[in-house]
Amino acid sequence: MEGSLTGLHRGVRRRLVRLVRRSRDPLVVRRASAILMLAQGGSVSGVARALAAARSSVQSWKRLFLEEGEAGLFPRTRGVPPQTVTASLIHRLLALLD
């Protein structure tokens, strides 16, 4: 898959359709729908219009899909990574309380 989605493998297409039908994440459904529409020969502008998305978003979804496959359709976490409580931190906090 160089830059075109017209030759989308049958198995990949099935997994994308399953994602559209079963995913509870509307972002994933929208992105998978865009990839399916592009694979059917839709233009970036036409897909963007149909999904009420910016052309740049559709282009980004396409690029991520071509680079990362289906994993590129799932949103990445943004911002500060979640804090984890370690045993070392618990010991330090307990020492402060003493």
Explain how this protein is built.
The protein is an all-alpha fold and 98 residues long. Helix content is 61%, strand content 0%. The protein is elongated, with a radius of gyration of 20 Å.
Unreliable stretches (pLDDT < 50, length at least 5) are: none
- Order of SSEs: HHHHH
For the secondary structure, the number of strands is: 0
> Judging from the principal axes of the Cα atoms, what is the shape?
elongated
Q: Biggest sheet, in brief? A: none
- Overall mean pLDDT stands at 90
Q: How far from one another are the termini?
A: 62 Å
Quaternary organization:
single chain
Q: Could you outline the blueprint of secondary structure elements for this entry?
A:
Layout lengths: L9 H13 L3 H14 L4 H8 L3 H14 L18 H11 L1
Keyphrases for this structure?
61% helix; mainly alpha
Question: Nutshell version of this structure?
Answer:
The chain has 98 residues and is mainly alpha-helical.
